[in-house]
Amino acid sequence: MSYMHEKVAYLQGLAEGMEIGSDSKEGKLLLQIIEVLEDFADEVDSVYDELDDLNDAVVELDDYLETIDEDLADLEDDVYELDDDDFEDDEDEDFEEVECPDCGESFFVDGSLIDKGEDVECPNCGVIIEFTDDCECCGEEGCDCCEE
């Protein structure tokens, strides 16, 4: 960053033009401040050089990772031989919304579990919910009295 070096060089020239010497206390102080500023400018240049090197390394790593990602995608395609059709939603899936009789929380259950009469645990409170084919009004299995 030559801009800082230019500013420090200007201060050095200004101090010489004003004939500031190290023979007075104030002169010693000003010359030391200018010297410290020059050291700072050198250090800032060094930091900027390191940042440039790091930036180059990051760009190189980014390119390398992009290449690896492309190779991995090709490998996955070859190994798994998946089509876009494999990721489509299965429209045959049957989920039903169920309300927990204990806490009143609603959640979805696979319809096949309900059809099989399997028990399901409420994810909110942990109560076991039993699914049966028994009619709610008469208690008989398979009746038609509630299907109106």
From TrEMBL:
It comes from the Bacteria. Residues 76-134 form the DPH-type MB domain. Residues 37-85 form a coiled coil. Keywords: Coiled coil. The keyword Coiled coil applies. Signal peptide: none annotated. This is DPH-type MB domain-containing protein.
